[in-house]
Amino acid sequence: MQLESRPVYTGRVVRLDVDTVRFPDGSTGELEIIRHPGAAAIVPCASDPHTDRDPTILLIRQFRYATGGLLWEIPAGTLDPGEDPEACARRELLEETGVTAGRLQRLTSIWTTPGFTDEVIHIYLASGLTAGAPSRERDEFIEVVPQPLSQVLARIRDGEVRDAKTIVAILYMAGFVLKM
Amino acid sequence: MQLESRPVYTGRVVRLDVDTVRFPDGSTGELEIIRHPGAAAIVPCASDPHTDRDPTILLIRQFRYATGGLLWEIPAGTLDPGEDPEACARRELLEETGVTAGRLQRLTSIWTTPGFTDEVIHIYLASGLTAGAPSRERDEFIEVVPQPLSQVLARIRDGEVRDAKTIVAILYMAGFVLKM
Prior knowledge:
Structural class of chain A: alpha+beta
Largest sheet of chain A: 4 strands, mixed
Order of helices and strands of chain A: EEEEEEEHEEEHH
Oligomer: homodimer
Strand order of the largest sheet of chain A: 7-4-9-8
Radius of gyration of chain A: 18 Å
Distance between the termini of chain A: 42 Å
Largest interface: A-B, 61 and 63 residues
């Protein structure tokens, strides 16, 4: 239970607070917490994942400063204030890949790293795709690299895909939608 | 490429910096980054996962202030300065569950949320377990709840397990070690 919250820094995306907390045993302590508006992520599937056993996935290759280089990811982005996660998923898919989704299926939602942030990512499966032009933000460096699901799974197995939301999304889809 | 790094806050676990960065196209900008020492997480498997098709997993139920309640997770914890991830995995497994692992197999490593932190979690599969007494930290509230892998998978499918590292670890193990 929160007893007090002391704002330390408010940034462009995240906010850092130091909260005084009452723990389940009645004791109290201080915790650092990064408050985040939440995000949506999308597995863009170029064919119907319910009938095609090895659908083409629009993976992206993105520059991530925090990792020192390029990462394999699925499209994703932060919720605008008051934005519905599904609307955010459609918007980010369009902005990052230029693609519009005919059908969006919610897979799950994840706490990215609950030891120090309240960030939740809502994960969707997109199909019935229509191609268009992306409109990326100034500091986004993204290349769209379509590839079969089997190749994405091999990249996860071999440790080449290391982004948590991407691994969750692809393995969730393979295991529980395609039942591979 | 980092041009400058301005420390904003140094906490108990995380540090917040605002870096001035040169992007791949030559432009520059500021990025908030949470610097984290990294972590290790462990899937504790009470029987041999290479022969038992439905091994018992020592899942934990943990109070996480950032999420407002209890989360299903696998044991995990932050690397001590200079600590080897495998040594950290053994230490955290012992501290949180009281269990010593006979065998540790590295599964993969993940970037938890690379948009704003450099945190990496190294994930291990532990088997050949010997029971003992846990020694938890003052602000850790953890209950060990052994359950069959099939039940953990059902909890992931139904959205009851929402911690990213836990989903990655269990689905990676089910898909690539047990080849379910």
